[in-house]
Amino acid sequence: MRWLAVVSSGKWGRVPGGLKRRGLSSWCQALVYEKHGDPRLSLRLERWKLPDLGNADVHVKMLAAPINPSDLNMIQGTYALLPDLPAVGGNEGVGQVLAVGSHVTGLHPGDWVIPTDSGLGTWRTEMVAGEDLLLRVPKDIPLESAATLSVNPCTAYRMLLDFEKLRPGDSVIQNAANSGVGQAVIQIAAALGIRTINIVRDRPDLQTLVEKLKVMGANHVIPEEQLRKPEMKDLFKSVSRPRLALDCVGGKSTTEMLRHLERGGTMVTYGGMAKQPVTVPVSALIFNDIRLRGFWMTQWKKNHALNKEALNEMIESLCQLIRQGKLTPPAFTTSPLEEYRAALDESMKPFSSSKQILVI
């Protein structure tokens, strides 16, 4: 007889696999979209049928899920990965295991889990997913850190470690430094003894933002306009030219940033907020031997799908930084799932300074 481990009304128990799962719903509430377009118009909070729990499946109660730019791009239909429609929004979040199938050995009721890949649809109250699509995370880190762990910190971690062999004292330059990835880069780099030169757009509360990033560990915070001025040469009298540039903007911001790279350095593009192409001067390639690379966390996970050790090692390293107080989530605002429209409005405002997290 097949068995399922379940938790019902807060108590652990077991029932035969073919029987009704006591206390576990076959339906959930989910933010669903049936066509691509403006997320504020496309999303609806609806009842969503859960699939039956298979031998290798896990039933999860979602606890919290952020709203990321890639989530919005997916709903808009402009992202590289698009699920079949209708679909549930959200690619990141943390949940708690309610029940596991009879063949599941690595997860147990009560565990916290995060998705190992995009496309699961985390903006919902519950989900059923294969064990291979979930990764256990420790419960001794803050809920908001767990909910925002699998995208921005992982992206920052991989870019800092995989493209240049950086040593303490080396420097990195990045634009969109106030973004979720940018803040993670600042904190992880500081923990590694790497100096950061951080480019941000000018804004009314610029000085407040500069102070906030420096508290996180930023060594230098520079308005984008200053990046193009001759005074930048003075900075490199006391700071080594960066060997690594991290680009999330594109357009002129990227062109000006890579001019300051050390000869033989690497520029990694992982986003295109300006929606403009990356333009590279010929001299940067011929005379400075600059290397241009791209990075997509989803592709890294696909490439390492058969090697969970690399993923587990990265997550554990990040969790250790969180425990030590060296890696905190970006400034955030929490909202109930039912108030998703207000959260979407805030997420889509220019110069948004707070990540929206749906608490479920």
Radius of gyration: 22 Å
Strand content: 25-35%
User: Helical proportion?
Assistant: 25-40%
* Run of helices and strands: EEEHEEHEEEEEHHEHEHEHEHEHEHHEHE
Distance between the termini: 34 Å
- Could you list the spans in which at least 5 consecutive residues all have pLDDT below 50? 1-22
Please outline the major beta sheet: 9 strands, mixed
Walkthrough of the structure:
It is a single chain. The protein is 28% helix and 26% strand. The protein is α/β, with parallel strands linked by helices and 360 residues long. The strands form three sheets. Strands 1, 2, 5, 7, 8, 9, 10, 17 and 18 form a nine-stranded mixed sheet that branches. A six-stranded parallel sheet has the order 13-12-11-14-15-16, with helices on both faces. It has a three-stranded antiparallel sheet with strand order 4-3-6. α4 packs across α5. Residues 1-22 have low confidence and may be disordered.
Question: What keyword list fits this structure?
Answer:
360 residues, alpha/beta, ADH-like_C, 26% strand, six-stranded parallel sheet, mitochondrion
Structural topology:
Blueprint: E1 3-8, E2 11-16, E3 27-33, H1 39-42, E4 43-49, E5 57-66, H2 69-76, E6 87-88, E7 94-100, E8 112-115, E9 126-130, E10 134-137, H3 143-147, H4 152-162, E11 171-174, H5 180-192, E12 195-200, H6 206-216, E13 220-223, H7 232-235, E14 244-247, H8 251-258, E15 266-269, H9 282-286, E16 291-294, H10 297-303, H11 308-323, E17 332-336, H12 340-347, E18 355-359
Parallel strand pairs: 11-12, 11-14, 12-13, 14-15, 15-16, 17-18
Antiparallel strand pairs: 1-2, 1-7, 3-4, 3-6, 5-7, 5-9, 5-18, 7-8, 8-10
Helix pairs in contact: 4-5
Domain Enoyl reductase (ER): 40-360
Family: Belongs to the zinc-containing alcohol dehydrogenase family. Quinone oxidoreductase subfamily.
Organism: Pleurodeles waltl (Iberian ribbed newt)
